[in-house]
Amino acid sequence: MSNEKNDKSSPNQLKEKIQQLRKELANNQPVDSLLESSKTATPPTAEANNLAIIEDLEHEIDLLLKDNLRLREEKLLALADGENLKKRIHEEVADIKRYRAAGMAEKLFPTLDNFERALQVTNVTPEVKNFLTGFEMIYRMFKTVFEEEGITAMETKVGEHFNSNFHLAIEIIETTDVSSGCIVKILQKGYMIHDRVLRHASVQVAK
Fold first, then answer.
1. Which of 27, 104, 194, 196 has the lowest CB atom count within 10 Å?
2. In whole numbers, what is the pLDDT of the chain averaged over residues?
């Protein structure tokens, strides 16, 4: 049977053919009406005719089963792709919410650094001390907002080993105060936002 005829076949058509075949077999009648043959060809026997029709129907059923299996697999793949897309979108939205303050914090770090330097000043006049008290209040407000967004200062210490994942070596110096490859001085604080490095700590490292 041609591919065109296979494509046009349906389960209902196959059912009708099988029912007709059963009737004709029950009546011991030839089933020439279901077999495509040339007018000039020698008519086959009833038994050969029936066998050809059965094989033809089995072939069509196999094609339909394969198409059905293919469609089921495509449906499952589409469902899996949809679930993966939903999961990826959910994770991206969660990341946006979790790290939303990163850009703002990076812009405010220089201001925060200036506040910290100002608060380290000693031997000031009472008037300057009053200004510093106001600075300290603002500085604490900054820190509170940062902490609410998951932004915290790194606990970098002098003497600990340099780690490029968290530290930025600005200068390498010769010293006997700490072991080689360890931090000599913290030049600028590093910051984390949750589990990510937001700003590396700038440090001096022993040669």
1. 27
2. 81
Q: Which residue has the higher pLDDT, 86 or 38?
A: 86
> Do 144 and 127 fall into the same domain?
yes
Both 108 and 198 in one domain: the answer is yes
Reported residue count of the chain is: 207
In a domain, 49, yes or no: no
pTM above 0.90, yes or no: no
When pLDDT is cut at 50, 70 and 90, the band that residue 45 belongs to is low
pLDDT, mean of residues 174-181 = 92
Q: In whole angstroms, give the CA distance from residue 10 to residue 25.
A: 22
Bridge partners of 167, per DSSP, are: 201
The single-letter code of the amino acid at 198 is: L
Nearest-10 crossing angle of helices 46-98, 11-26: 160
- Residue 127 sits in the same domain as residue 189: yes
Q: Amino acid identity, residue 192? A: M
Coil, strand or helix: which one is 154? coil
- Is residue 175 within 8 Å of residue 194, measured between CB atoms? no
Count: domains in the chain: 2
> Do residues 86 and 169 share a domain?
no
- CA 67/CA 9 separation, integer angstroms: 12
In a domain? residue 56: no
Rounded Cα distance, 116 and 125, in Å: 18
The answer to whether residue 109 scores a pLDDT higher than 90 is: yes
Tell me which residue range forms the domain holding 131: 101-206
More confident residue, 51 or 158: 158
